[in-house]
Amino acid sequence: MPNETIISIKNLWKSFGKNDVLKGVNLTVNKGEDLVILGRSGSGKSVTIKCLVGLVEADKGKIAVFGTDITNLKNEELNKIRVRVGFMFQNGALYDSMSVRQNLAFTLKHHTKDLSDEEIEKKIIEALENVGLKEAIDTMPAELSGGMRKRIGLARTLIINPEIILYDEPTSGLDTITSREISELILSVQKKYKTTSIIITHDMACAKMTGNRIMILKDGVINAEGTYDELEKSEDEWVRSFFI
């Protein structure tokens, strides 16, 4: 189905105490699209995607994922949506007391019941091969570089075969070369698995490389939208400031 809407957010509001972070965000993401959301620190980028999976509860608005309004779903129903959505956290969010193998197995067992040990091992190896880190299977997180932790975080996201992947600052804290490798990995994952993605980033090289479309958050609303080239040539000085 052409331009099938997978994610729809309408008039999303979220405050923390007296701090109004989101003030009526509207966006849609089509099947197979990679949408990049830009914005200054504290603009609500991460809050937006956390609302999408119920990690943060919206104050007002409608959030539809796979055509289902999730805003008032009970936890059991929400979990049926969550198992189809992968979330790559900013720091990789690995369990430090578990090896890479154990981290991936834990996620797989949590999402998928009744798998044999052989099936679990096969899926772990496949996920690690997809991020180029099969040799790290018995490594502890503390032994991994920042870039490797991001890759393992992505492998853990991929192991549940998500239809949507939400990336929260996937290249933050990485050097230029490693950042580029992670951006290339995001593209190869999208191509191989036909995922739909939202990528939260400050990294303009990552935004240019991965985004079919870019939105910019300002003062709690979407201030600008377009392709990288369109926004780079914007007449709005504030929008152009991201591209300098």
UniProtKB/TrEMBL annotation:
Record GO terms (molecular function): ATP binding; ATP hydrolysis activity
Protein's UniProt keywords contain Zinc: no
Listed Pfam families: ABC_tran
InterPro entries: AAA+_ATPase, ABC_transporter-like_ATP-bd, ABC_transporter-like_CS, P-loop_NTPase
PROSITE patterns: ABC_TRANSPORTER_1, ABC_TRANSPORTER_2
Segments forming domain ABC transporter: 7-244
Keywords annotated in UniProt: ATP-binding, Nucleotide-binding, Transport
Annotated PANTHER family: INTERMEMBRANE PHOSPHOLIPID TRANSPORT SYSTEM ATP-BINDING PROTEIN MLAF, PROTEIN TRIGALACTOSYLDIACYLGLYCEROL 3, CHLOROPLASTIC
Entry protein name: ATP-binding cassette domain-containing protein
Organism: Flavobacterium restrictum
Taxonomic classification: Bacteria, Pseudomonadati, Bacteroidota, Flavobacteriia, Flavobacteriales
